[in-house]
Design a protein that fits this description.
Length: 249
């Protein structure tokens, strides 16, 4: 009886040969990509920045021109911006044959912070202290006046302070009711355990107290539209059954 030969050996040989061909093609292609001048970085584009100057950011990476597009790692590119406090995130895209596109996500200010010495810093939405070397056009935030000392505020670090944290929480609660409320507030400070808000145009003070913010904001807006407040007045909204408008002590 004749034994028929199975095709397993030929099938295995075919797979092995195909695998070798694919590996050779992969590493050969990778070698060509990494060594040919065709994939040299010829153009770097920096986008997404708002306050930070494009030329400043470009200068941090311009020495990458002439390097291989695929051998230049994302981590190395991103590291060029690590010491720029206002850069929150960097994303990198490559366009063949030789274009590098770097998209910057900036940290944007939310408040100014004034120390006991009168030094002003910018805080972002997460409470990080941004540089105070430049105050950019369009940045017009309420000032949180504190008793913090200058050496307690570190640029590039997150600020941990109970009073400042309470201001963030209070403002978040107010903004949930009226998103534009703080457009007319110039300063926030603490006095006798209460938060005082300073109105931007006239300079009168507002006290909300705790709780029932929706009612208090509606009450304040009604008063704002129907009354004239003088500079040295306090609009006290802490009481449910009465409204107090009194002179400053």
């Amino acid at each position: 009886m004749t034994v028929k030969k199975r095709g397993n050996s030929r099938y295995f040989f075919f797979l092995l040969t195909s695998g070798i061909v694919l590996l050779v093609a992969f590493f050969g292609g990778r070698y060509l990509i990494c060594t040919t001048d065709y994939f040299t970085i010829e153009k770097i584009e920096v986008v997404g920045n708002d306050n930070l100057e494009t030329d400043f950011l470009y200068n941090l990476v311009k020495d990458l021109l002439g390097r291989n597009l695929h051998l230049t790692k994302n981590a190395e590119i991103a590291s060029r911006f690590e010491n720029v406090v206002r850069v929150k995130d960097v994303s990198i895209a490559r366009t063949l044959p030789g274009k590098l596109r770097i998209t910057i996500k900036e940290r944007v200010g939310r408040f100014f912070l004034r120390t006991a010495q009168g030094t002003v810093f910018t805080l972002d939405a997460e409470g990080m202290v941004l540089d105070n070397d430049n105050f950019y056009e369009g940045e017009n935030f309420p000032i949180i006046t504190t008793t913090l000392q200058d050496d307690e505020v570190e640029v590039g670090a997150f600020l941990h302070d109970a009073f400042v944290d309470s201001v963030y929480s209070f403002c978040d609660a107010v903004l949930a009711v009226e998103p534009t409320f703080f457009n007319t507030i110039s300063e926030i400070y603490r006095h006798d355990d209460d938060l005082y808000l300073v109105e931007m145009l006239t300079g009168y003070k507002i006290i909300f107290g705790d709780g029932d913010l929706e009612r208090k904001i509606k009450q304040y807006r009604f008063l704002e539209q129907n009354a004239i407040f003088e500079k040295n007045r306090i609009v006290d909204l802490r009481f449910a059954d009465q409204l107090v408008i009194r002179p400053e002590e």
